[in-house]
Amino acid sequence: MQKVALRPAGDADRAFLAHVYATTRADELAILPWTDEQKAAFLAQQFEAQDAHYRRHYGDATFDVVEVDGEPAGRLYVHRGRREVCIVDIALTPPYRGRGLGTRLLRGLIAEAEQSGRPLSIHVEIHNPARRLYERLGFRPAGDSGEVYLRMERAPT
User: Fold this and answer.
1) What DSSP string runs through the chain?
2) Range of 96's domain?
3) What pTM, to 2 d.p., does this model score?
4) Higher per-residue pLDDT: 157 or 22
5) CATH code, domain with 129
């Protein structure tokens, strides 16, 4: 079994974290008639905006790099509030997707939320295939967040 570990993201991880972000946008950008340079500039700007938003609104969250057998494989950002545990962002790079690693990370968060008696929440794009995984793990729609995102929650049992 592969060793999955979390470590705090630092300044030296910014290029990797930007890469993780870029992989989450690859499919939608593939259809655009932009040059590689235009796509890279757009992704850099969007990564910086997202990162600034997360750090401004979830400043006391954990911002971790996911490592698999010592190699960086993704990111996991979690805000642990008094009333709920919120998955701010979870993303794995393509070589690590579809291998059960996301499920392992989510089950760990489910156990943490259960132990503390708090719900676990996440905002997911409506058409994101990962939504099916969240549903299998007991997350249910808990309110719209606009036209693009759905707030999902897993209540403690």
Assistant:
1) ---EEEEE--GGGHHHHHHHHHHHHHHHHHTS---HHHHHHHHHHHHHHHHHHHHHHSTTSEEEEEEETTEEEEEEEEEE-SS-EEEEEEEE-GGGTTSSHHHHHHHHHHHHHHHHT--EEEEEETT-THHHHHHHTT-EEEEE-SSSEEEEEE---
2) 4-154
3) 0.94
4) 22
5) 3.40.630.30
